[in-house]
Write a structure and sequence with these properties.
Length: 351
C-alpha cells in the first residue's frame, strides 16, 4: 500500500477517503439536482468498472461512486471529462476548462435545489435554472460555500441550514372582483402559514406585515382571486449550519429581492472570503466566516455594488441563536455568549 497518498489533493479533486485504505468515493456535481437522465449511464459505468458496483445519492444531490481504488482515479478523471464539459461549461457556463484532471476544486459544494415550479404546484420560482446561473459565480473556487435553493417557504432544500439559503417567495395580487367570499384562502393561511388573512363582509383583508410570501392562498382559491405576479422574488437566509459543536439555523439577510440582486450578491462571496481570510483560503463554514468578520462587515461587502429593487428589505443586524454545550460535571461553558453576529470567545473547559 502506498502511504504517500495526498488525501487533501484528492479531496479537492472531489474524491472522498474511504475507511478502506486506498479506496475513495467520487462525488459528481449535479448543480440544482436536475440533469438529463442519460447521465445516469456515466455513474453506472464508473460504479461498475472502477467502483464496487453501487452508487450513492449524496445528501447534497451529488452522484457518488464508492469503492474506487487509488490507482484507478486517473482513469476515472479522464472518463468524466466529457461530463464535466457538458454540465459545468456548456450547461452552467462556468469559467473553467475540462481536461483529464477531473474536477479542479471542491470548495463550493454542489448547489442543492428542490424541483421548483417546473413541477411543484407550491413553488414560486424555477430553482434549477437559478442554480445553474449561480454555479458559474461560485465554481470553481478555493473558497467554500454551501448553497441551497427552495421554491417556496416550505424550504424543502433546507436553506436554513446552509451558508446561503435562497427561497422563492411571492407577493400575491388580490383581485377582489373575482372573490366569491368562500374564505378558503384565510383558512389555509391560518392552518399552513402566518394567519394574515381574514374574511370581512365577504371580502378578504390582509395584514401585510407578517406575510411570508408562500402563495398558499393562490393554490387554495377556487376563483383565481389570488394570482402570483410575473415578477419573481426571493428571500435569502445566511449563516445556517449543521455540525458537532455549534449547529444553528440561519437568519434572514434579504427579503423580497429579485434574481438580479441574488446573482450580484453571490458574485461578492469570493471577495468577502478573500477579505476575511487575507487571500489564504482554507476550509471554514460560511457561518463561521460571517462570525469572524461580523455581520456589518459581511453586509457591507456582500451588498457592494448591488442595486436593490424597490421592494427589497435588508436585515440591519442579526442575532444568532446557537447551542451551548454543558456537561453534568463542574465545568465552565465552552464559550461566552456571542455578541450579535460576532464570534465566540473560547474559554477553558474545566475549572
Amino acid at each position: 500500500m502506498n502511504h504517500d497518498i495526498n488525501i487533501g489533493a484528492l479531496k479537492k479533486n472531489c474524491f472522498r477517503q474511504s475507511k478502506v485504505p486506498g479506496e475513495f468515493m467520487l462525488q459528481m456535481r449535479v448543480p440544482g439536482g436536475l440533469i438529463d437522465a442519460k447521465y445516469l449511464k456515466v455513474i453506472e459505468e464508473i460504479a461498475q468498472k472502477w467502483g464496487n458496483g453501487t452508487f450513492h445519492l449524496g445528501l447534497r444531490q451529488t452522484l457518488n461512486a464508492p469503492g474506487i481504488k487509488y490507482e484507478n482515479i486517473e482513469a476515472v478523471n479522464a472518463y468524466i471529462q466529457e461530463y464535466i464539459k457538458e454540465i459545468e461549461i456548456e450547461m452552467c457556463n462556468t469559467n473553467m476548462e475540462s481536461n483529464s484532471a477531473g474536477y479542479p476544486n471542491i470548495g463550493p459544494r454542489n448547489i442543492m435545489a428542490c424541483i421548483g415550479n417546473s413541477h411543484c404546484i407550491k413553488a414560486n420560482i424555477n430553482t434549477w435554472e437559478l442554480a445553474r446561473k449561480l454555479e458559474k459565480e461560485i465554481f470553481p473556487s478555493p473558497y467554500h460555500i454551501k448553497l441551497s435553493i427552495s421554491g417556496c417557504p416550505n424550504d424543502c432544500g433546507k436553506g436554513h441550514f446552509n451558508d446561503f439559503g435562497i427561497i422563492g417567495v411571492t407577493k400575491p395580487i388580490y383581485l377582489k372582483d373575482r372573490c366569491i367570499g368562500c374564505g378558503r384562502c384565510a383558512k389555509v393561511c391560518k392552518k399552513a402559514a402566518t394567519r394574515v388573512l381574514k374574511l370581512v363582509n365577504h371580502r378578504i383583508e390582509k395584514d401585510t406585515c407578517c406575510c411570508v410570501g408562500c402563495g398558499e392562498c393562490v393554490e387554495a382559491c377556487p376563483a383565481s382571486a389570488w394570482v402570483r405576479p410575473e415578477k419573481k422574488l426571493y428571500r435569502v437566509m445566511v449563516g445556517g449550519r449543521t455540525g458537532k459543536q455549534y449547529p444553528r439555523m440561519g437568519k434572514m439577510f434579504l427579503n423580497w429581492v429579485t434574481e438580479d440582486v441574488i446573482v450580484a450578491v453571490i458574485k461578492n462571496w469570493q471577495t468577502f472570503c478573500a477579505n476575511v481570510l487575507d487571500n489564504k483560503p482554507f476550509y471554514i463554514h460560511g457561518g463561521h466566516l460571517i462570525d469572524r468578520a461580523g455581520y456589518q462587515k459581511f453586509k457591507e461587502i456582500m451588498l457592494d455594488g448591488v442595486k436593490l429593487n424597490p421592494e427589497a428589505m435588508v436585515a440591519q443586524r442579526i442575532l444568532w441563536a446557537e447551542t451551548e454545550y454543558r456537561s453534568n460535571i463542574n465545568v465552565k461553558p465552552l464559550c461566552d455568549h456571542p455578541s450579535p453576529g460576532g464570534p465566540y470567545t473560547p474559554k477553558s473547559k474545566v475549572d
